[in-house]
Amino acid sequence: MTTTTFVRAALALLVVGLAACGGDGKKTRQSCDVDGDCSGGVCFEQECYTACTDQSACGEDEFCVVKPRGDETVNLCVVAADFAPCTSVDECSELVPSQCQTVACGADGVCGFDKKLDGTYCDGPDRPGFCQVGTCITGDTCPNGACTAGETCENCPEDCCNPDPCGDGLCNADGGETCASCVADCGCPADERCGDDGTCVGCVPDCAGRQCGPDSCGGSCGECTTGQECDAESGRCGGGGGECGDGTCGASEDCVTCPGDCEGCVAGYLWTFDDDVTTGFSSDISADPWQAPVGIKVVEGGPSFLGPFGKQTVHLRLGSPGTTAATGGLPLGLLPAHDTVRLTFDLYVLGSWDGHAATDGSTYQSMPDTWTWGVPEIEEGNSYSFSNCPEDVQTWPEPFTAGIPNATKPAKNGAASTATVISTTDTCGDATYHVTFTFAHHTGTIDVVFLGNPNEYLGSQDLANESWGLDNVKIELLCAACGS
User: Fold this and answer.
1) Cα(385)–Cα(376) distance, integer angstroms
2) Environment class of residue 226 by beta-carbon count within 10 Å: exposed (0-12), middle (13-18) or buried (19+)?
């Protein structure tokens, strides 16, 4: 599966979530004493249930769960109404979700499940794996010649237990060493990067959404016309410091600050989190201590930002019935007509993020540390690995995909700032990234999804160890054919 296909499938699942947790009530089921009474189903508490090994065996309003039955466990399809109403996820603790679902107390006050995002970590029956379409896929990466994320000497001895020549100063291609599997021996020169096939390739310019400024390879994305200046951060050309209303789009003007001057602007929305406005943001919270509710963190002498968050999904929804606040310039109804969205924000990567591999190519159980964004309705988005610790590597600004050789970049590569955001005892520090994504979009609602570090599974981890946050989030609606 290609990176794009993999991520698109992953983000498509997000829109299912708790919306499928309903059902019109507890189902009428055939009574039974043993499994043989159930025509191939499962007899549980004297009622017949459909047997399942994964979510595909169950109906749209059902969930495949594992339930204890005497000295064994059974997999069966249930509807949320099979269980008592809930006011918090703690009251749903009797449910044991399958490996690619997360138990939750739904908005209707009924216990149910959220599907985990494709590519997130799961514990398979034989070895760790990754979620894919509601199922824990295991064994796909073992053996592949590299001890990759989720593999250990115990669960993948072929890749992880053999004597490792990586680090001997020789790039042994016959032994499977590449710039992806052994950075220490096969690392690329400063002006090249590690390609998907594990070989070093020339630097690929990154000019997506940019008119001017650096292309990340020592070149330029273009020059502005006479009378215009280049805003280095956005890579856009604008007038030389003109005032809003003068008909010239200045370098500091955009669809939020001065839509009338800037070509193609339809509307703009901005969250600085300095005014306590979080309208449109939400997160599904479970009992996991690694998650946190939506809120603003105020750092003395530092920024006010949304977070910190852990291994959870955060939504930014606009134009939906739930978006009703009149503050912050947010829409009360459907978004106005547009054909393009430009999303910019500051991403705070906080604490000891481990990336996806050590600098010598080896991995360990807390890897990969990834962060994902996407817009499920248009199936667009990507995951990236981040590292704040110098002994580990990351993929940013290139995507990360489990089970394949990924690009290797040094820790904090591309960060706009490596200054401390939150003071902690962590020794790896923090990093701030200025992020811009531009994508085609035309509907009256939008749901932008941010998924933080879903692969972190160590029981001892908490928000003080690794977390993330958002700041200066801006959505600009553009339309080339709609007028300004």
Assistant:
1) 20
2) exposed
The answer to whether 385 touches 404, Cβ cutoff 8 Å, is no
- Give me the residue label for tokens 């990759």: 148
Alpha-carbon span 117 to 199, nearest angstrom: 30
Q: 27 pLDDT exceeds 80?
A: no
Distance CA 407, CA 194 (A): 5
- What sections of 209-287 are H helices per DSSP? none
Q: Domains in the chain, ordered, with CATH?
A: 3-121 (no CATH), 254-478 (2.60.120.260)
Secondary element (H or E) of residue 440? strand 430-440
pTM of the entire structure?
0.54
User: What are the helix and strand counts (H, E) for the chain?
Assistant: 3, 28
Q: In the chain, helix, strand, coil percent, each to 5?
A: 10, 30, 60
Digit-coded pLDDT (tens) for 278-310: 988 999 777 677 888 899 999 888 889 999 999
Instruction: Name the pLDDT band for 3 (thresholds 50, 70, 90).
Output: very low
Calpha distance 318→307 (Å, rounded): 19
CA distance 92 to 96: 9
Mean pLDDT, residues 212-241: 68
- Of 159-163, 286-290, 440-444, which one has max mean pLDDT? 440-444
The pLDDT of residue 176: 75
The values of phi and psi at residue 35, to 5°, are: -60, -30
